[in-house]
TrEMBL record:
InterPro entries attached to this UniProt entry: AlkB-like (IPR027450), AlkB-like_sf (IPR037151), ALKBH3 (IPR032854), Oxoglu/Fe-dep_dioxygenase_dom (IPR005123)
Fe2OG dioxygenase domain: residues covered: 92-189
Name listed for the protein in its UniProt record: Alkylated DNA repair protein
GO molecular function: dioxygenase activity
UniProt xrefs under Gene3D superfamilies: Alpha-ketoglutarate-dependent dioxygenase AlkB-like
GO process annotations (BP): DNA alkylation repair
Top-level division of the source organism's lineage: Bacteria
Upper classification of the organism: Bacteria, Bacillati, Cyanobacteriota, Cyanophyceae, Synechococcales
SUPFAM superfamilies recorded: Clavaminate synthase-like
Length: 189
């Protein structure tokens, strides 16, 4: 399997086959209860431009922009995918934030995954299902940037130092009309 990487992330194209991604995309869309969180930015409240679900071990929660999110316990149907990503990444993830990008109008702004509830010594595994979308990195140290085109079945493994040295985003893409599901497997304290 071809891997594109630097010291702070590794990219694995087509980690999951097209047949498997179709299966997982359908089962996730059918079985999760999606929400559209409201976040507080500079004293104003905004609905995030995507839908989310949060799965994890019992008692896992995290705070983001003034709201506390509680994990829905792992459903049994999810374990084959969870175990596959855990084995591949050699990391015992205990939570998974799932974002549903309904089309190219849904997006994620510049950020680092540095919530205090996350274990900063563990990687984050980001699995893409569905539409191809651009994913950008911007250095916090210098002016460098990188772009990865994330496709159906691709895995992006962000190593711990990635969150300290880079911000990342998924910008709007008006021409994208297909659904994209992004699963970010994380280790919570």
């Amino acid at each position: 399997m071809k891997s594109l990487s630097n010291t702070e992330w590794s990219y694995f194209p087509a980690l999951i086959s097209h047949n498997q991604t179709g299966y997982w995309k359908n089962i996730i869309l059918e079985n999760l209860e999606w929400t559209q969180p409201v976040v507080k930015v500079y004293s104003k409240r905004y609905s995030v431009p995507r839908l989310t679900a949060f799965l994890g071990s019992k008692g896992i929660s995290y705070k983001y922009s003034g709201a506390i999110h509680y994990a829905e316990d792992w459903p049994k149907w999810f374990f084959p995918l969870l175990d596959y990503i855990r084995d591949f990444s050699r990391t015992n993830y205990n939570g998974c934030l799932i974002n549903l990008y309904r089309d190219g109008n849904d997006c994620m702004g510049w950020h680092s995954d540095n919530e205090k509830e996350l274990d900063p010594k563990k990687s984050i595994a980001s699995l893409s299902l569905g539409a191809t979308r651009d994913f950008f990195f911007r250095s916090l140290i210098d002016s460098s940037s990188n772009n990865i085109e994330l496709r159906d079945g691709d895995l992006l493994l962000m190593h711990p130092e990635c969150q300290f040295n880079w911000k990342h985003c998924l910008p709007k893409r008006k021409k994208v009309s297909e659904v994209r599901i992004n699963l970010t497997f994380r280790c919570y304290r």
